[in-house]
Amino acid sequence: MRTNRKPIWPKHMLASGANRGENMPRFYEFFAGGGMARAGLGDGWTCAFANDFDFKKAAAYQSNWGADGLHVGDIRQVGIDKLSGTADLAWGSFPCQDLSLAGGGAGLKGERSGTFYPFWDIMKGLIADGRGPKIIALENVNGTLTSHGGTDFVAIAETFAEAGYRYGALVIDAKAFVPQSRPRLFVIGVRKDVVIEKGMTSPEAVEPFHTRGLQHAVSRIPEKARKSWLWWNLPTPPLRNSCFADLVEENPASVEWHTADQTARLIAQMSPVNLAKLDAAKRAGRRMVGTVYKRTRPDGSGGRVVRAEVRFDEIAGCLRTPTGGSSRQTILVVDGKKVRSRLISARETARLMGLPEDYKLPRAYNESYHLTGDGVAVPVVRFLAQHLFEPVLQASGGQHGEDTQDNGGQHKNATVRNGRAA
To answer: End-to-end CA distance of the chain, in Å?
Structure first.
């Protein structure tokens, strides 16, 4: 069981504080949630503005980062007057529900994922005001590539090109850094006047970040927008040295271990192939930790049945927001013939997202799960910062955005108390 209080990604992945000072790069964080993009960028970056409409997430953001620069409210009501100075990076993890395979298929026309357009209205406003960010980064689910037959991805591509940004995309699975299967799409654009050094791009798609699905989606982009396309060339991450079992708590504060009867009922919901996986884990000769999702499957006679499906591959399934009981992962700890089960703990979900041990989680279990399940994996952001954002900014002469306005009047910061804006 894991007892240390250090982040689980390697030391070389941590942001250095050596470049602290007035000339640190500045960023705007949209759809900020609990500030996981901020955590990944690290203390070598300055957050000039953060926004989220969810008061509970904003409360967690404030608990960890303070209220400075935090604006709580609908992005549709955010004007560029609220964003002080200039920024080197604008980060936007816009909602995924309408783009995910589990969503309703509304795509960018949906109420939630459609907030991409208000976000881009802000970008257009900044560009028109002479304050366009040097880098714009979007993060979302891989379903973005195929949503509406690929037209949603094409719309995003054309938006970057029309705004004067060279852009490219990468599919990065967080399992390269943390023991969680979490593939996500990152679309990253660089303003056309910003220098991109040789070697930062490739003449064609390269593994592992340019998947076949991404290549197929790119082939649909019209020629005019394709002229601005880049194949970002990033190094392959080092091998991960942690597994899910390293993260498991023996005495979690947020959940309780199941009773023997509860565990037996869970096992009874397994299909023969999943029971075989459990039997193999019992014979492994070492402690095995698996994760379980409940899914509705055909029962073979025309009906449907709830099945408990387990994996013992040393990584957890992708964290999801807890909209229903089946969205919450159960862990199964197997020591020989002894089998225990319980819900995954709030702290374990934070560890799976690469958050440090001192990150303050909401007290309510579902709120913590929703916060982490909706976030971006911290070490993936650090990887992008180290190998893409920071080299691009360094090549541009190291001159970073600056705060040209004070925080009074129009830029008065929001403070969250008891889940409400004050």
So the answer is: 41
